[in-house]
User: Fold ERCC4 domain-containing protein from Malassezia yamatoensis.
Amino acid sequence: MHEGTSETSSSIPSPRQLLSPYLRPDSPTLAVRRQTKRAKGCVSPPPLFLDDTPTTPVQASRPRRTKLTAEERAKKQEQRLRELTERQRWRDANRVRQRRSDTMRDLIVHLDGGFNHDGLDSLIQPLREKLLGDEASVQFSPFSQSTKKFGMIVFERRVRSKYDPIQKLWEPLDEEQVQREATCVHVTMPEQLLESIHTNSLVNQIAEAIPPEIQAATHVQKPTRHTLVIIGLDAYLRQQRSAKNRDYIESVRQRMQHAGAESRPLKLPDKEDVRCKVDHAILQLQMLHGCHVVQVPELDDAILWLHSIACDVSVRPYKLLEVRRKAPMRSGSITGRTELSTYQAMLEQIPRCAPPAIRAITQKYPTFFCLLSTLERCTLEESIDLLAPLECHSGRTTRNLGPQLARRIYETFTAEDGTSIIDS
Assistant:
């Protein structure tokens, strides 16, 4: 039994013996392998799996460039320059403009012929020099000289791009456009102002502000913001008042000297004050017509005001866009995660109540109810005596809470008058 199994096992070849080419030389498969090896120079058959040896990638042959003619090279160079120019136009259009030198060079300032009146002629040259120093364009437009008694300034802007709210980018325009700004500034002296008030023509001087020449040139209709700059009104009214008082005193003196002569009725000064008329007219101009009134004492102050208004007009569209881009303020109730955090947030709203002071207060009075009940049982002096000695530790320094902050805390939580915290 054992001998039979041993003979059978010895007759069956193992897997290694099956792979040996010398075991069965008459096998057709081995014959084909021998022929293949002889033909290929004993090259081993391809492996069943991927070989571990790295293979060098075959470099792809680069396509040869087609030789361009001179005309094609010129067209390609022209297209490239056109693309670079367009890219630069978009880059210039979307450049941040916040400096005065960037915005003033696009501004056109029209000065009215009303500046030829007495007192305003010395204002033109310094204002023109300041505007030209900022690279703005200044033009003299003598329109409506016969009816206008105020000097008038109208602004225009050179527009090279427009804002796209969808893409949130400035899109450059193909052609430069001139756009009128909705701001008109009037400059007057006290004499012209009082004359227009007496003749009831002040509103007409302000309302008929936009020149028809500018409207026809720009074709833009916008609500205009009017600003009236009055130079030296207070000094002029004081001089008028002093002159009337001197005339009255002189008339009284002459009457006393000629007491024996025929007495004439004494002319008293006007009871109706001119100042009241002027204030009423200015208030009516502000409330009913939305005109902003600026009173300056001297010509130098008026020049500074006009230059500042021109700078604000030049940067206005970019400032409005910057405000729209900013994230809106958080509106809603602010709550703490715990009672202690809410308590600390309430103390933070008190002016000059720093974190060291908050830690000292919360250590002495752990809850808001504890602090409020203590303050309600005490008077102002007693609460100051309780809170002022509290020690506030900030790093290596230690200081007391102080009577001023203690008074402010007491007024914040116990006072019935809402304005008492301002006085504390």
The chain has a mean pLDDT of 77.
